[in-house]
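To: structure subgroup
Subject: Chain for Friday's discussion

All,

I'm putting the inputs and outputs inline so they're searchable in the archive.
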Amino acid sequence: MSNEKSRILVVDDEANNRKLIQQMLKQHYLLSFAVNGKEALEVCRKVRPDMMLLDIMMPEMDGVEVCCQLKEDNETSDIPVIFITAMNHVEDEVKGFHLGCVDYITKPISKPILLARINTQLTIAKQAKELAMMNRHLEKQNQKLSELQTLRDGLIHMIVHDMRSPIMAIIGNLELAEIDFQPDSTDDYNCIGEAKNGAVKLMDMVALLLDISKMEDGKMNLNISKVNLIDIVKQTIKMFDVIKKGRDIILVSAEETFMIAADSNMVQRVCQNFIDNAIKFTDDESGKIIVNIESVNGDKVRVSISDNGCGIPSEYHEKIFDKFFQVEARKQNKVHSSGLGMTFCKLAVEASGGRVGVESEVEKGSTFWFELPFK
């Protein structure tokens, strides 16, 4: 039994029954009494008992009606009710459970059973209140976290957006320097080119952050149209003619046409990210990158980009698409994913109704893939 005494409201029109219950419970609980249903409801609103022992058979307003009114009132609906009923009154018991009573006691009343059932239901009620308090606390914490998330996202969006102008100014001035600057050596000229390439990459990262922010907020509008996936992949591969560094990019497809409904620019950017990643991790300049396009189950098309690089440990396969997550390839002194390109790919493909994945084995290479529905 709890050290703090709970208050029990006993509702019964028979004086002998009230007296009997008082003798059984007075050492363990604080007691209040009511002789009819109307008085019981008034006591509940004034005293707020922890439990009600309610006789079903009473004149004017029986226990069923009392329980019904108790549960309809928001101020008293959480008070647990145990019905007191005569033996074999099954219908009364069933009706009581439907109305929200937690248990019942049959007459003649057994003290051990009465105490055990009251204690059990009070413990459950106490735990329910504690759980409700914890839920309210969690809701407040979640609301605060949501507000902080909104503030953080807004701040990131503002910072990234404001970065575009100075980066564009840097790129513009470096391009002018390439035209007007008279270098003393090739190294000087190369420094300008490297600085411009770095600024362009930074600009691409800013664009990715903005796109990811929009997609996470559900504000990225997709320009959906009927497109030939084969054409998009071929155009993307052609973009790498200059920077593939001797590596062969081989397109494998059993079909000449895969018509899908998608945002062609978005699909191209996904392909570009995966192919760029494959070039980075192909072991040598004579290596091959395989781009495979195939139908899956007749309603989806899968594009797979495979390299023969160092591979990714299995425990990182899911995390590789997380923002800012990196896996170091020690032998090549390279890092798998800035966490931005892969995150963009995942969000973009999922926004188009598809999914992404990776299959990889250490020392044997990786295959990044994405699937899109035909319709």
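Points worth raising on Friday:
The first strand starts at residue 7 and ends at 11.
The domain at 7-109 is CATH 3.40.50.2300 (Rossmann fold).

D.
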